[in-house]
Amino acid sequence: MKVRRVTTTEQALEALAEHGSAAQPLAGGTDVMVQLSRNEISPDVLVPINDLAELSTVETNGGVRVGALVTHETLAKGALGSGYRSIAEAAHTVGGWQTQAVGTLGGNICNASPAADTLPPLLVHDAELELRSSGGSRTLGLEEFLVGRRQTRRAPDELLVSVGLTPGAPRSGDVYLKVGRRSAVEVAIVGLAMRLVFDRNEIVSKARIALASVAAVPLRVRAAETLLEGEALDGHLLDEVSAAVLGATSPIDDLRASATYRRLLVPGLVRRAAGVCARRAGVSSPVEEAYQ
Amino acid sequence: MTIVGERFRRTDGEPKARGEAIFGVDYLPQGTIHAVLLRSPVPSGRIVGLDVSAAKAMPGVRAVISAADVPDTRAGWVLREQPLFARDRVRYEGEPVAGIAADTLEQAREARDTIRLEIEETPAVVDLDYALSEDSPVLHPEWESYVPTLGEYPRGRNVAAECISDPEGVEEAFEAAERIIEDEYRVQRQYQAYIEPKGAVAIYQGGRYEVHTAHQFPFNVRDRIAQYLDIRPSQVRVIGHTIGGGFGAKLDASIEPHACALSRAAGGLPVKIVNTRTEDMITCPSREDAITRIRTGLDKDGNMIARELVVIAGNGAYSGEMPWLASIALHCARGVYRAGPTRVKSFLVYTNTAPTGAFRGVNGVYLYHAVERHMDHIASVLGRDRREYRLQHLFEPGEVLLNDQVLDDAGILGEAFDAVEEAAPWEERLAATAGPMKGVAIGAAWWVTNPMPGTATVKLNEDGTIGVITAATDNGSGAVNLGITQIVAEKLGVQPEDVYVTMPDTDAAGFDAGSQGSRTTRIVGKAASIASDEVIGKIKQTASELLEAAPSDIVIADGKVFVAGSPDSGLTLGDVAMAATWSVGPIQGTGSFLTPFPDFNPGCATGLMFPSFPTPTYHVHLAEVEVDPVTGAVKVTRYVVAQEVGKVISPNGVYGQVSGGVTQGIGYALYESLRIGEDGRYQERNLENYRLPLAVDIPRVEFSPLEHPDPDGPFGAKGVGENSVLLGAAVIANAVVDAIGVPIDRLPITPEVVLKAIAAKHSAAVA
Amino acid sequence: MSSGISFAVNGRGVTAQIDGAATLLDVIRNDLGLTGTKEGCTEGECGACTVLIDGKPVHSCIYPAVSVDGHSVVTIEGISDGETGRAVQEAFWDAGGIQCGFCTPGFIVTVAALLENNPAPSEDEVRIALAGNICRCTGYSQILDAVEVVVSGKERA
Q1: Of B17, B653, B687, which is closest to C41 when you measure between CB atoms?
Q2: pLDDT tens digits for C57-112?
Q3: What's B209's DSSP letter?
Q4: Which domain holds residue A120?
Q5: C57 & C86 share domain
Q6: Which of A226, B50, B156, B734 has its CA at a distance of 20 to 30 angstroms from the CA of residue A112?
Q7: Could you tell me if A87 and A142 lie in one domain?
């Protein structure tokens, strides 16, 4: 296996243009190296990009633009600000500190695991991806980018360079909830992100719900979002939201958990997430959790 | 006493903290070549083709061997049933079929990939009840020809061993019962998950094998290699290295005999084998899977008057030491509670899975889980307080057990309940956990200190320091580097840092039965104490001549030797050592020790291979949990232990054992499971799927040591190491059941298990 | 196909020829002979292989060796060069935070990094920082004690 050394983004793009699908960009390596050792991937050329400083910046003016090489550790510390707590929470659960220290947002996106923690919160923040090749660049919504398990619309000569997020809003709250067997270092059994914006009357004006580990790709549930928008939070409504989420997802049995358990989790997570979003948005109405 | 009972730093701590300690997997003598094993990819089948010729021709390859290249013999700790390489049949996934040694590990792996292995698969026997039935294929059709190493015992077909005790009066007692409570519990396998995978280096030289391995029981490795290679044990020298954890899994040989055979085939080059983590997991002698069926008859007042316990445990494809342990069910069938006449049937059954083996608290963890879950069930049916019901039936001093062993000191159990009560008053804790999704539970156990023999030679070095020569191993517990060290230092009046204990070497030291069953501090500590007495006698003799005083007036303290009353005009230990060396010869002494089995009634059961529990200890644990009603996740919020230890030799060491054992118990209760799929393959195959408890998952354990010194133990010490694992599953399961109000009868209690139980209760309530 | 890299290990410059997919752990243990860093799982789960790259803890068993080119690596062997590292080693020994010792280098490296970043972490912060390191022996209590010893010692100073 060859290594193509690059010192600028342009050189990286040239390498990708030259080797195409035989090349594997290498950022923190936390997924790629495991996949290499398990023989799940077999690229001819590795293109380390971990030192490309221009991809490691966070810009916050109006919206937020996050460089693809920003690490989970940086995100977990709240680098994006208080409007993006779900992203910080998700980044904080990606493996242990050693993984967060080198694992990158772009890596998590391009690895496109069905269980990727940062993807649900990125989806609820309407993430737009900037993909660049030596021929130019294009912008693609994250939802559109994700095709299937570990499959994306990244062309072989493209590099994900940054992620744009929708600007924060007043009276909004977001959260990422993750279920695993232990308290940390888990691959999500279910991950659920929610973002709610309320109007002055505590009516939901905008809702986003996205989940990981309930389908081949992390996904937004528009039907559930539509149910929430224009309504005040209450238990009955959240039951309907849960039903919509369950209707739109297709969890499977795997080593970590059964589909049945994943389905059982959804109502409680939806209620808990709505409660946290409301609290973070400064909304007064309490939301009760299931079975309490 | 100034050393025993005081806090000291372990003598091997500095090199471990600095990264200088050479563990087994770090050992790499010059010229070492690397080997891998070709392991069976299927759990059951007939080998119909094996062609290694391509592998032999691969670059760098030094040797390729299989069953055809080694003696046609079988080896085993208790039963000689296991071939070095599968000969005609494979009986579990991961069973070695061939070994490949090459200049580099990559070359060995590439050569392995060229071997053509054809196996005609046969259906794997996986289910324990099925394995026991007449319908099941027999794993070892030739079982009758296998030779037991310690005398014959009841076995046959797929029954690898059984222990049955059916005394008179059991049936009558059940017939007289007002009601009968019955339960069935199922547990998965648990992987020891030491962080250092198994590895070894073997060198064939001068007609002997030198084996370097980080092992809990070097003499057992020696004996197993001798069996496999059909040679005398003295033709094998096993040298121990720093061990990266074992917990029972490194008590029997694993890859060491293969490394030996490969070194010989490679002309004597040092051959190193290290398991990958997946290999290690799928072939590890894990804690056995088991079904326990337990039944109790109650009289009209709710007293327990009859008990039956049936245990079916998974042996895997070969036996290891497991037959020896089947009779532990007899010793734990009632826990520590009187339950009337008791019938016990314990079956160890062959399945097409990796051989199971010892894991800290062998058998006891799931037996106590069953007994204590059953106790809570009975108490709840009767509407009785769970603690009070236990105390009402608690063993009393002089309790006569099912095997007629008498527990004169069973009163310690009551003290242990009192100690836990002081730390966590039951009524207060019941009130504190009365809300939804909070629970508390208490349970008790008794356990054995492994009695098997050990020896130590203590020598006075010419500079006044002390050498201890022993094959005792420190598996990390501190039994050698704190326990034996502090005992010898106390005896000889030196600081622990001036005591040097050898690493095990079967050529250099006498037989030692290994780091198992909490035996090392007590057994080898006692042997070293006896040896120290001999040294003390010689020091006093020499000093009495130098100081012109009677030996009985000589005092040894603080590294000095002086006449009683004149500490300032004495000699150093070094002075005495030099004087003795050049007059009567070097000063050293030797001691050996073992604990006899307490009296028992051999007629009480068939298959009573572990006849009674020497040096018993007593334990009470209390756990509190909180359940997340949304996810089902269980958080252990409090864990209290009262444990009889005899005498605390090393406070740091004792607490470390208690905290570590409890953590493994919590792991077993909540996170860890090595599940066997219907195809006979393990489902969990790496540490991403096998979930070990992390620092975020474990509370600080509250611990009350109870000290009733044993007159036979060194300074009164009893076994400490393994006991703390015994009750974790029991009390956590009961606390979870208390929290959610739904019985859970399997381990581990994952969030999924809990949430499903809550949901079932919820929908039942709605319906 | 090998590739040349140069980087600092414990303050000394080193060069190595590596295969493209080589891990940092391979280079540290096999090429540089620094066996204090341990291999426990090769999947970034157990933390025994933890080293510092530019002060951050990394699972070297899944870190590409090529990516340390031009960077600074500190292993357990170099931890004692720093005051914090030395204090952590001493505290682990003193508090009983070491049993078998195989996980110990990884823990000490992680704790040293934590205390360099945050000299007075709460116990919860310590537990979270250590989630990427598994200890099978101690049950973590005496490891937490060790961290407390260092933290309180610093406060006294």
Answers
A1: B687
A2: 999 999 999 999 999 999 999 999 999 999 999 999 999 999 999 999 999 999 99
A3: E
A4: 2-40+60-165
A5: no
A6: A226
A7: yes
- The proportion of chain A whose per-residue pLDDT surpasses 70, expressed as a percent, equals 98
Quick check: C3 and A3 CB within 8 A?
Answer: yes
Out of C37, C38, C93, the one facing B14 most closely (by C-beta) is C93
Residues A10 and A154 in one domain: yes
Residues 691-730 of B with CB under 8 A from C: 692, 694-696, 698, 700-701
Domain match, A236 and A151 both? no
**Which of C18, C45, C50, C62 would best serve as a mutation to test chain A binding (most A beta carbons within 10 A)?**
C62
DSSP string, B372-398: HHHHHHHHHHHT--HHHHHHHHB--TT
* Amino acid in the structure at residue A39: N
CB contact under 8 A, A292 and B629: yes
The answer to whether residue B765 neighbours chain A at the CB level (below 8 Å) is no
- Chain B residues whose beta carbon lies within 8 Å of the beta carbon of residue C35: 19, 22, 26
Q: What is the CATH number of the domain that holds A153?
A: 3.30.465.10
Tens digit of each residue's pLDDT (9 = 90 or more) over B346-396: 999 999 999 999 999 999 999 999 999 999 999 999 999 999 999 999 999
Report pLDDT digits (tens) over B492-517. 999 999 999 999 999 999 999 999 99
- pLDDT range class, residue B765, cuts 50, 70, 90: confident
Residue A290 lies in a domain: no
Q: Which DSSP string do the residues of A105-166 spell out, in sequence order? A: HHHHHHHT-TT-SSHHHHHHTT-EEEEEETTEEEEEEHHHHEEETTEES--TT-EEEEEEEP
Judge if A9 and A79 occupy the same domain: yes
- Please judge whether A189 and B751 are an interchain contact, meaning their C-beta atoms are less than 8 angstroms apart: yes
pLDDT-derived band at B316 (thresholds 50, 70, 90) equals very high
What residues contact residue B668 under an 8 Å CB cut-off, 6+ apart? B190, B287, B365, B725, B728, B729, B747, B748
For residue C69, the distance in angstroms to the closest alpha carbon of chain B comes to 24
Q: Quick one: angle between helices B525-547 and B573-581, nearest 10?
A: 80
Same domain flag for B678 and B613: yes
- Decide if B684 and A255 are in contact by the 8 Å CB cutoff: yes
Contact assignment for C46 to B687 by CB distance below 8 Å:
yes
pLDDT single digits (tens) B541-558: 999 999 999 999 999 999
Q: How many domains does chain B have?
A: 3
Q: Is the pLDDT of residue C154 over 90?
A: no
- Determine, for residues C39 and B25 on separate chains, whether the beta-carbon distance falls below 8 Å: yes
Q: A201 and A266: one domain?
A: yes
- Residues B626, B506 within the same domain: no
Structural domain span for residue C29: 2-78
